[in-house]
Design brief:
alpha/beta; about 15% strand; 3 domains; 434 Repressor (Amino-terminal Domain); Rossmann fold
Length: about 375
């Protein structure tokens, strides 16, 4: 009886897929993945890093690359990439705090842009503590950041990396400032309130440490002068403390009310303090907006959902964050000796909602208890 000779089967290495690409135990290299697909490593690098130069690569090829990268558990070798390019692809971001309001909305714009560009970032919250304002920039530099974004944060000294500051107004070497046109914001608000018949307007200034406090107050005073509006000292108060909650606005409004100086409108430093102000007004028996109109500043996400919905000066906060990130990456790409803008100005918008109305027809500022 004749038997058919059988060749011994090649022993398969566990954890290794066809074409010699590893599926288990470790991530495949870019070179291995390229060999598997029959493409050049350069093509894969352009596609996986979402480089603008990948625009000429057919969509079908891109889809094959992404599918294979996912299937074979490909992860870029970040350390090797950094050593080759002498780049860390990492930025630092300094913020006062991460409660509701201004800083998180700016940060979301920064985050969205950096995600698209393939950058990582460290965030440090300093809570306005002088020792942290001194310490954190150097700690971030020690972690090889390529640049720094400072949100409502003073830059005390020139740094060895490019810096973009959001809502700073002082000129520091190496710093680009992204700022709002506060003069226009003040004019828009006072135009609107005076058109509604408000002549006795109260104001809540920001905390002494806030980047925008002085420039915004100077803009309000100038706008009032141009309108012939008298700002009464008894109708001006200031936020105190570093709490990101509505409580400072609540306390500031209680101080205004205790002065027994009537007013029909209140212009708060930001939306969070405006929400606290509305609570204090209601607690004292005032109706908003029938007795007192309230205007905020920033247009945070919750402003439209407050009761009543808050009239506010909208800062394009996410756009300011995106602009800061875009500007910083451009400065990094241009190199340390390239010229850079000192200031980039964005425009405000007055968003009219339900917290404002015509001034009461009765004697201005008279208390109307429900």
């Amino acid at each position: 009886m004749c038997e058919t000779a059988r060749m011994p089967r090649k022993k398969r290495v566990p954890g290794r897929a066809r074409h010699g690409v590893s599926r288990a135990g470790r991530s495949v290299s870019l070179k291995e993945l390229a060999a598997h697909l029959g493409l050049s490593p350069t093509t894969l690098s352009l596609v996986l890093n979402q480089s603008p130069a990948a625009g000429s690569i057919p969509k079908e090829t891109k889809d094959r690359i992404f599918q294979a990268a996912k299937g074979f558990n490909y992860r870029p070798n970040f350390v090797a990439r950094s050593l080759r390019s002498q780049r860390s692809y990492t930025l630092g971001v300094l913020v006062p705090e991460l409660g509701e309001g201004y800083s998180p909305m700016v940060l979301s714009g920064v985050e969205h842009y950096l995600f698209q560009e393939g950058y990582f970032y460290f965030v440090a919250s300093h809570r306005h503590k002088p020792e942290l304002l001194e310490k954190y920039p150097q700690m971030l530099l020690d972690r090889a950041i390529e640049g720094l974004i400072a949100i409502d944060t003073p830059v005390l000294h020139p740094l060895s990396r490019p810096v973009v500051a959001v809502s700073r107004h002082d000129e520091v070497e190496g710093v680009t400032n992204v700022v709002l046109d506060h003069e226009q914001a003040a004019l828009l608000t006072l135009d609107y309130l005076m058109e509604l018949g408000h002549k006795r307007i109260a104001f809540i200034k920001g905390q002494v440490f806030s980047s925008d406090t002085e420039v915004r107050w100077a803009s309000i005073r100038e706008a009032a002068r141009r309108h012939g509006l008298t700002i009464r000292p008894a109708l001006v108060t200031q936020l105190e403390g570093d709490s990101p909650s509505p409580e400072p606005g609540y306390v500031a409004t209680q101080k205004l009310l205790s002065a027994q100086e009537p007013f029909t409108a209140l212009f708060a430093f930001n939306d969070i303090s405006a929400i606290g102000a509305i609570r204090a007004l209601r607690g004292a028996g005032y109706r908003v907006p029938e007795d007192v109109s309230v205007v905020g500043f920033d247009d945070v996400d919750s402003a439209a959902f407050h009761n009543p919905a808050l009239t506010t000066v909208r800062q394009p906060l996410r756009e300011m964050g995106r602009l800061a990130a875009e500007t910083l990456l451009r400065r990094i790409a241009n190199g340390p000796d390239a010229s850079y803008p000192k200031f980039l100005t964005v425009e405000p918008e007055l968003v009219i909602r339900q917290s404002t109305a015509k001034a009461p027809a009765r004697s201005e500022g008279k208390r109307h208890v429900r």
